[in-house]
Amino acid sequence: MWDLDILIVGAGPSGLTAADHLVAAGRRPLVIERSAQTGGLIRSIRRGEFIVDLGRKELYTRIPEIDRLWNAVLGVAYRPYPHRVGSLFGGRILELSGRDRGPLRGMPPQLLCAGGIDLIRGWIDGAIRRPDSYERFWHQRVGRRFSHALAQGYWEKFRGQPWHALPVPEALAGGEQRVSHGFAAVVQSLQLAARGGVSRQHSWRHPALGTGQLTDRLAARVREGGGEIWLNAELIALERSDGGRLLATIRRKGANLTCRAEAVISSLTPESLDALMRPNAPDIVTRHKRAVMLVYLFLNAPPRFPHAWLEVNDPAFRAGRISNYAGFNGDMVPPGHSALCVEYFLNGDDPLLRSNNDQAWIAQALAECSANDLIDPDRLIDAMAIRLDRCNAAASWREEQDSARTDLYDRLTAYPGLFHVHRPGADWASFAGLCAAKAILTQDRKDFDRRADPGRSYAASNAETMREEA
């Protein structure tokens, strides 16, 4: 056993951000990472001449401290890109913004006419009765066809829940005024997917060599500053020690190593962390597990669409989203080539996860892309499939809140030297890591508990700070 200043579990964005801040202050943390690569869910994958992200990745600018850090770390490699997003429906690509093809978003006349009729039907239905589901709310508001063409299919796949099973949005339940019946309502119907597809963020940037370029540079800064990063090293036990310290057991190279740390920063899920600290406690019942299947297609032909990604609203296809890495204005794809990622969002017990092997998933992705004329299958030069188990692509802080999670958070705060920084979203996770590092340096965790509260959104946790800055 040896004594350690700071142990950081996980070399993803939260752990590396914390380590970077600590080494800048002269501390020497040890970062352990279970896999063979840094980056976590924002790592990049090299495949021959190609560099791709792990699915579709967006980097937000909503947290000033993190936006400044990313700009400082990446410099000119943090490149702006158009953030053009399309909806794949009925064999056509519709726009989720009126910026590129005007207010009609590329809709064919027959869809506009049928959608207009559905819109009037929805208004009539809304005048007769109040909506009893999320689906009826939107069908009354913008019509069934516009809902299907711009949002419903994608979001049902993404979340794994049909709209008819979801409750009416809180805004209407609270007495929100109905939308007016006029052109503004038609425009709103064409903007329906802005509830997820198009963010209010006005300027978007992406690392030239994929999101893993950010964590690679952070890891290099940590090592240059005197910190250590152990890959293929896993935390297998954690318990309270004397003097408020924590006793950690790490499995590395087939051996179990024990250290006594003054502080531990963990990016494990709260359930995983609780299981390490209470190994004999009953398993926590969680919501149904989700999984993501990523199928990468590499072609020796330029992409047939300019969008950074397409949301697949067509219910005839299992794919949920198709990312086009040439659309991020970087150096991820060689000139004259294409790299697409076809994403399938699945329940953890989906029979396809058991019956399909990698080649079957690749064949399905090829068939679906070819059927929509997105690729020429004869130009395929490489393909691969990656399965992400226990991965919910739609995870958000709101969806992770329930009574079991609240109890978990309360138990974790009983350990003053333990900082839990697992958060959905690279920026929110990075901010939690930064707050944890600052708390260790100041020996005061009040700001961490307030500003990085896992039970609230960043905006809610930092409302007072944002008012002061304004």
Question: Could you walk me through the main structural features you see in this protein, from its secondary elements to its overall organization?
Answer:
This protein is an alpha/beta fold. It folds into 3 domains: 2-76 and 210-283 and 396-469, FAD/NAD(P)-binding domain; 108-169 and 180-194, no CATH class; 290-388, Polyamine Oxidase, Chain A, domain 2. 35% of the residues lie in helices and 23% in strands. It has helices at residues 13-24, 64-74, 109-128, 134-142, 144-159, 170-173, 183-190, 212-224, 270-277, 351-355, 358-371, 403-412, 426-442, 446-451, 458-461, 463-469; strands spanning 2-9, 30-33, 44-47, 50-53, 78-80, 85-89, 92-95, 205-207, 228-231, 233-240, 246-252, 255-266, 290-299, 309-312, 321-324, 338-347, 380-388, 418-420. The protein is globular, with a radius of gyration of 24 Å. The N and C termini lie far apart (49 Å).
Contiguous uncertain segments of 5+ residues: 173-177, 193-198
CATH class of the largest domain: Alpha Beta
Structurally, the number of domains stands at 3
Helix content: 25-40%
Please give the CATH architecture of the largest domain. 3-Layer(bba) Sandwich
Q: Would you tell me the overall average pLDDT? A: 89
Straight-line N-to-C gap: 49 Å
Tell me the number of helical segments per DSSP (H or I, 4 or more residues long): 16
- Principal-axis shape equals globular
**What is CATH's topology name of the largest domain?**
FAD/NAD(P)-binding domain
Q: Which percent range describes the beta-strand content?
A: 15-25%
Protein name: FAD-dependent oxidoreductase
Region (Disordered): 449-470
GO molecular function, one term: UDP-galactopyranose mutase activity
